[in-house]
Amino acid sequence: MGTKYHPLSIFVALTIFLLAFPATAQIFVSPADNKSPGESAGFLYALPKSTLKIDVIIQKTERIKGPYAEFAEKILGVSDYIRQDESRQRIKDVIISVESAPDPAAWFFVEFDERASKDTRSLVFDLLPNGIVLGADDAPLQKIQGQNKFEKIIVNSPDERSFSYYAERNLYQRVDTIVRKITIDTTVIRRNILQSAWVDRSPEQKARAAADMIHKIRESRLQLITGFQEVNYGQSIVFMDQKLQQLEEEYLSLFIGKEVKSLITHTLYYAPEPGSANKATIAGFSETLGVVSETTKANPLTIEVQAVAGPGFNSSERPKGRLNNSMYYRIPALTNVSVWFENKMLAQEKLYIGQLGTIAVAPLGKTRLQFDAQTGMITTLKRE
Predict the structure, then answer these.
(1) How far apart are CA 327 and CA 134, in angstroms?
(2) By the number of CB atoms within 10 A of the CB, which of 39, 137, 225, 328 ranks highest?
(3) pLDDT band (50, 70, 90) for residue 138
(4) Which range, of 118-127, 359-368, 369-378, averages the lowest pLDDT?
(5) Spatial contact of 379 and 135, defined as CB atoms under 8 Å apart
């Protein structure tokens, strides 16, 4: 004879079972390399991989020979002038920062248990467009994205590479006197005929014309300063003197040359890998070539990454298991990053590097999580 159960006992047992069931398998997370696309319903998320961004600020100095440099000593008596075009570069500053991108070795697949209750399935996963997880919460997060900046600062104006008063007229009028003799019997008549023609100026003639202009400008400045014209110009005399001085410098540059300086930013990227060497060459640099990818004709520009704190530094272990009501996140390693050139430290920063840390597990049952998009570390944990 079978045992009879009271209906109230059956109802209580079912209630306990239903309350306990949602606390079990509802969300499954497993490494993406164990899944094939389309094999089951779900979505993918990634942990961030840190990439070091190194902005190398170069000061480039160009010395440009003047078009009348060969006549500088002969006409002006100047010996200190630029004799040939040359360019020199030097490292002015180095700025180290961190950018993040999805780690190809840290993609995970999330599945939902269709038998889970309605309340349990209200969890919201926030992702960036590239797949990096931002949070597992009951409300979407506000996403703020930055933009990379590239900046080039010109110390001198770009038009200072050219010589403003070099494009003077190339022709001048030459007047020749032709003497024609006319003999009538014993009488000789001389007749002068003036013949003019436009001919090209020689480089030396152009140089002498520029030198004459320099003397005229200096004479005008002297008359202006000494009050030769006996006119009260007021404050405008300062402006006129500055303009005359600039005009004189422009004409002088035709003989002594110009020096143009500019600041240029070269951006380099380096992603440290677990288990790799702490020091690596990221580029080469020389005074004549600047920043180059090869170091055959340049001295190496190196970066060094040293551990300061963080679990699992240089750890090569990868998660393999399937999680139940939990998810993988990243604990970054605090590192000391420095850039070196010719045994001299150019920059140093303490930065968190995600892939040099370790991957840990966080519960999802009654917990709401928010993650840092740069490192993958938990920033906010809310327990229900």
Answers:
(1) 12
(2) 328
(3) low
(4) 118-127
(5) no
State both tokens at 378: 């938990």
Return the pLDDT at 166: 54
Structure tokens at 16: 């306990």
The rounded mean pLDDT for the chain is 77
CB-based burial label for 255 (10 Å; 0-12, 13-18, 19+): buried
Largest distance between two CA atoms of the chain: 173
**Beta carbons within 8 Å of 124's beta carbon, 6+ residues apart:** 135, 136, 137, 138, 139, 140
Angle at 150 between CA 340 and CA 96, to 5 degrees: 30
Q: And the tokens for 210?
A: 């520029």
CA–CA distance, 228 with 241 (Å, rounded to integer):
14
Q: What is the DSSP letter of 36?
A: -
Distance CA 49, CA 175 (A): 80
- Digit-coded pLDDT (tens) for 42-90: 888 889 999 999 999 999 999 999 889 999 899 888 888 889 999 999 9
Sorted by sequence, the CB contacts under 8 Å of residue 99 that are 6+ apart come out as 50, 51, 53, 148, 269
What the block records as the tokens of 258 is 């110009």
C-beta pairs of 116-123 under 8 Å, 24+ apart in sequence: 116/22, 116/26, 116/27, 117/22, 119/22, 120/22, 120/26, 121/26, 123/27, 123/364
What single-letter DSSP state applies at residue 132?
B
Q: Is 69 helix (H, G, I), strand (E, B) or coil?
A: helix
Per DSSP, which regions of 157-213 are E strands? 171-184, 187-200
Q: For 73-184, where are the E strands, in sequence order?
A: 86-112, 124-127, 133-137, 153-154, 171-184
| CA neighbor of 252 nearest in space, from 204, 300, 217 | 217
| Tokens representing residue 183 in the block | 């003999």
- CA–centroid distance for 303 within its chain: 17
Q: Which long-range contacts (CB under 8 A, 24 or more apart) does 215-222 make?
A: 217/244, 217/247, 217/248, 217/251, 218/248, 220/244, 221/245, 221/248
288: part of which helix (H) or strand (E)?
none
Q: Strand 290-292's sheet: what is its strand order?
A: 290-292, 279-286, 299-309, 326-341, 344-363
Q: State phi, psi for 219 to the nearest 5 degrees.
A: -65, -40
Query: What letter would DSSP give residue 158?
Result: G
